[in-house]
Design a protein that fits this description.
With about 550 residues, the protein is mainly α. It has a domain of about 130 residues. The relative contact order is 0.05. Helix 8 packs parallel to helix 10.
Length: about 550
């Protein structure tokens, strides 16, 4: 009979027959003697004499005995783990903690995943109370490998069970301070500590409420935002994104520095695009918060109640300097870009739409000069940027403010439906569709030539992609140019005030799922109810939504 090491080697083989036979052997062992199975697998992970690939696979197999994407199966696996004797569970926990000091990086990483999975099962039941103390002690002493792995594990645990860690917040933050401070010269340790901070912000409300501790946290983040190491910088900016969502009410004294850092990050997008994406995302998140506060305050005013939260107007204050940067990023489209890859132009378009929802009428004074200057430019990048900028702000200002402006631009948009650039065609069609959705008008004033042009495009036997938006919505030429008649005059205001959950891409960390930029067409909090997807908010999101076949635009 082959050894467990040989079975694991075969399980990682590119030969399908060997792999399937090995997986069958592992299942038999698991079903026959689960306690012996997990102890044997754990021993393979811990043995420094085993091949690194075997140790890594052993860790993943061990983790998978406690993890499943299916909720019912997950509950079953958790019950099976808790039914094991205390000595068995204690041994596995002790061994995996020891592996965190291994010089083999893959072994440390998988051990961290196993530990966090066990913590997710046990800590909700007040088991393994000593874990956080053990990890905090490890980041204060031992080798650099142990410190890095302990921070990584701490970050994983913070992600898994944040609701059970508030009582440990002080000790976790003290440990993170050690890893992120300026005197820390090991960037691997600094990166792992910064990732841990991202995942810990959810349960540090009490710490953020105290100015001294808040100042300490912000100084740590500001310091790493200026790091020469790109990965450290990325996750420091991700901390700012999380803070914009979780601690908006506390950020006033820090906004000058935050603006300076995000401005520099956006300006440097050609060298460090992932940093720039998070810098833009900070402002998108801030727009989300301010739009929510505006809506909540309007509801309170209607009920003659005092507002619960104060609008701090971060977006409006920064708008004169922020919008030129965002508009410039709109011109940085790549001709052959994969629409599944979130890039700087996509992020800028999404952010601009959110700024419009927050600043409303005031955004027109900044965006319209850009549109007028670029919509007929010889460079297709600038033409498309102008069209996208105009379409992106339509769900912000009052319809009465926009209608005269639409009258000035609409003829140009129609011409762009037959632009030499397919990208410009697509953007023009999307913008016209948003005009139809958000700005109801009497179609009787529509010029016959415009109606004929759309009719030609819709009837073309080999139309460009610019007509897909119209066809998916089953719109005829007159409906395209004016979807709503005078009888629906109140609809535009209702649509304008509807809160739309914008699109965010998942820019996942290489190892764990929560350190990310959130995909804006999905809920942005794990406990938030799903909102109705509004693909017309962002051109890029609508294109991805349709391409993936997830549904039809409403």
């Amino acid at each position: 009979m082959p050894s467990l090491t040989e079975i694991l080697q075969a399980a990682g083989s590119p030969d399908a027959n060997l792999r399937q036979q090995a997986e069958l052997e592992l299942r038999k062992f698991e079903q026959a003697d689960f306690a012996g199975y997990i102890q044997g697998i754990c021993a393979e992970l811990a043995d420094p004499n085993k091949p690194p690939a075997v140790r890594q696979l052993a860790g993943l197999v061990l983790k998978n005995t406690m993890s499943s994407p299916d909720a019912a199966k997950q509950k079953e696996l958790e019950s099976r783990w808790t039914l094991q004797g205390v000595p068995v569970r204690a041994k596995i926990k002790a061994v995996t903690l020891q592996v965190l000091a291994s010089p083999v990086g893959d072994a440390r990483k998988t051990a961290a995943q196993v530990i966090s999975r066990i913590a997710a099962i046990e800590m909700p039941h007040d088991q393994w109370p000593e874990l956080i103390g053990q990890l905090v002690a490890s980041v204060q002493q031992g080798s650099d490998d142990l410190k890095e792995a302990s921070f990584t594990t701490l970050g994983f645990v913070c992600e898994e069970v944040p609701e059970h860690l508030e009582k440990h917040a002080n000790s976790i933050l003290n440990a993170i301070n050690i890893g992120m401070q300026a005197t820390q010269t090991n960037n691997k340790i600094k990166l792992a500590a910064t990732k841990a901070l991202v995942n810990s912000l959810e349960f540090t409300h009490n710490n953020f409420a105290e100015q001294r501790q808040r100042d300490m946290i912000m100084e740590l983040v500001f310091g790493v935002c200026g790091s020469s190491d790109e990965q450290c910088q990325i996750f420091a900016f991700q901390c700012l994104v999380e803070m914009g969502q979780l601690y908006y009410d506390h950020l006033t004294p820090y906004m000058p520095r935050i603006f300076g850092l995000t401005k520099a990050g956006i300006e440097n997008f050609k060298q460090r695009e992932q940093v720039a994406l998070r810098a833009i995302e900070f402002w998108s998140t801030t727009c989300d918060e301010e739009a929510d506060i505006i809506e909540e305050n309007e509801i309170a005013a209607d009920k003659q109640k005092a507002p619960e939260r104060k609008l701090l107007n971060f977006v409006e204050t920064a708008m004169s300097s922020l919008l030129p940067l965002v508009l410039q990023c709109l011109t940085c489209q790549e001709e052959d870009t994969d629409e599944d890859d979130w890039n700087i132009a996509m992020a800028a378009g999404s952010c601009l739409g959110l700024i419009a929802q927050t600043a409303r009428n005031k955004v027109c004074d900044f965006v319209l000069p850009f549109v007028q200057a670029n919509i007929q430019d010889a460079d297709w990048h600038k033409r498309e940027a102008a069209v996208l900028a105009f379409g992106s702000i339509l769900n912000g200002p009052d319809p009465d403010k926009l209608k005269p402006l639409v009258g000035q631009v609409f003829g140009l948009l129609l011409n762009l439906l037959e632009d030499s650039s397919v990208a410009v065609q697509d953007s023009a069609a999307w913008t016209i569709g948003r005009v139809c959705d958000l700005l109801p008008s009497d179609h009787q004033g529509t010029p016959d030539g415009a109606t004929c042009r759309v009719q030609h495009l819709l009837g073309n036997s080999q139309p460009g992609r610019c007509c897909r938006w119209f066809r998916r919505r089953d719109l005829g030429p007159v409906q395209v140019l004016s979807e709503f008649g005078p009888e629906s005059a109140g609809h535009g205001q209702q649509v304008r005030r509807r809160r739309e959950q914008p699109a965010r891409v998942v820019l996942r960390g290489a190892q764990r799922p929560r350190v990310q930029l959130r995909q804006r067409c999905l809920p942005d909090r794990r406990d938030a109810p799903a909102r109705v997807h509004e693909p017309s908010l962002c051109y890029y999101c609508e294109q991805r939504f349709v391409r993936r076949g997830e549904g039809e635009a409403e």
